[in-house]
Amino acid sequence: MKTLLSIITVIAIGLVMAVGVSAKEVPGASLGWEESSIPYWYYNSPCQQPDGTTLHEWLDALPWYGEVDVTGGGWDCSQISAYVEWLAENCGHEAVFTCRTGTADIRGHCWVTIEGEPYEATGLYWIKMETADPDYYAADTWLNNVYDAFEYSGVHDTWDGFSEWAWWLTYPELRGDK
Q: Where are the domains of the chain?
């Protein structure tokens, strides 16, 4: 029996080596993000939506974390949107990043669309598009997940592609592996 187990172990190690998979490799690492990469727990975290609450009730009751930093690289529209997207996706809600590309005349912006409804993460409220500023919420980019977001740099010219979305670096106490 020990011999069979040893043979299986050697075969498994050989397969891993042949395929070239390393235990340390994670998505995003090859893109040169110096601080980290997308955490292993990102889309595999426990749902934080309390039983018996609707999506609206849950998000309406979210606590606020920190001050918004609109200079880029801080807890701004991209990081807060990534945090809300992470919360929603881990509870089975379809969530996408919705962004307006910045120009010389207007700053870029990002919010989250959850189950087809726009949600302004910087203010933690649902956007009523019929009364919203059409220039401010003129979306031209939709990003399906945080991997797409890290490769997108159209909202701010200051975005570096990683820390701009990496809310778990700003607020590690919110991480899904704790």
A: 31-174
